[in-house]
Amino acid sequence: MKKVSVIVATHKKYKMPKDKMYLPLHVGKERKDSIGFKGDNSGKNISNKNSYFCELTGLYWAWKNLKDDYIGLVHYRRHFKGSKVNKKDLVNSVITLKEVNELFNDVDIILPKKRKYYIENLYSHYEHTTYVETLDITRNIIKEKYPKYLNEFDKLRKRTSAHMFNMFIMKKDKLNEYCTWLFDILFELEKRVDTSEYDSFHARFYGRVSELLLDVWINTNNYKY
After folding, report:
1. pLDDT digit string, tens, across residues 156-172
2. Strand 22-26 with 38-39, pairing
3. How does DSSP classify residue 196?
4. Prediction pTM value
5. Residue 123 and residue 134 in contact, taking contact as beta carbons nearer than 8 Å
6. Contact 100, 3 (CB under 8 A)
């Protein structure tokens, strides 16, 4: 049986799955009252960035502090569905450790189904949702630091579906690779974007950018999921 930990990012008390692979994690715990779950402000962490990075502070914590063979991220109200669904207990109708182990016999990455946009492409959807300058600056960073990913990034103007929500379960070596790449880009983005006039909604663009970067990384490397 493979060792798997899936953090459940939450900022409030909520019913959590009972399966032992799930680890409820209070994201943005720094300077906040306890809600009874482990906080993302222990060990190596960026908990104080949560108002900007959203669930990514939980991902960073998991990357830096967990030692399991496989590590994942889900949300307190958004999970991978299991094979057996009980409509009276949806929280415990989620994917189980046993099911995950079976899937990992064939792949190193588990993703949710793609979300489809029927009217817009991924770039235009982002543009109509928040300030597109943050995505354009991300492109500049990729062009400068990781040019092999630029072609796939530019397909955001054509693609109409993507694996969204920053949800996945990955083998640890893949997670190391992904997070090293992702957070290098995001921390550089942090240096280049002036958020002084952004309201709280628009300031949370790091999570939205990362949603689009996941497929850029997977497709460029041709990883099976």
Report:
1. 999 999 999 999 999 99
2. parallel
3. T
4. 0.97
5. no
6. no
